[in-house]
Design a protein that fits this description.
Length: 169
Amino acid sequence: MYTVNADGQEDFYVSHRDKGVWRKGRPIAALNTRKDEGAQKISADGRMLVYAADYGAVGLGNYDIYMAEVRQARWTKPVNLGAPVNSSAWDSQPCLAADGQTLFFSSERPGGLGGRDIWMSKRGNDGTWSNPVNLGAPVNTPDNEQAPFFHPDGHTLYFMSNGHPGMGG
C-alpha cells in the first residue's frame, strides 16, 4: 500500500506481489475520496489502517487521524478517531504498534515541547483511545519530530527530527 499524487490528488494504491513480481498498483476505491489521503500505516496483521486526511469541516483540525479495518475481506468505511486523539491542531503521521493497541502520531497540539511532537495514545478494551501523552524529552525537542515508526520488537521507535543531531532536516 502506498500513496500516489496524481493530478494534485493524493490517494491510496495497492500492489500485490505474484511469483516475485510486483503487479501494477490499483487505487483503493473504498478508502479514496476527492480529498487527499496519506501518511498511512497498516497494522502488522494487515487488518487495521490508520492514516491522515484533511476532510475540511468533517474533521476537528486541518489534518485528522482516521482508521479503517478489514472485515469480511473488505475495508470498512474510515472513521475519524475523534477527540481526544484528534484536536483542532494538525494531527498526522500515525503509526500503530504491532498489537494494534498503541498509536503514535505527530501533532502541533498545545502542551508539546516544540513545533511538532510525537504523542502516544492507548486503545482501551471498549475500543476508545486514551488522552494522548507527549513522549517528552529526550524524544521531543523544541524543534519538529515527525513520522514515528514503532518497530514490532516493541522497544524501538524510529522518527525524523530537525531537533537532534544528524545528517539533515
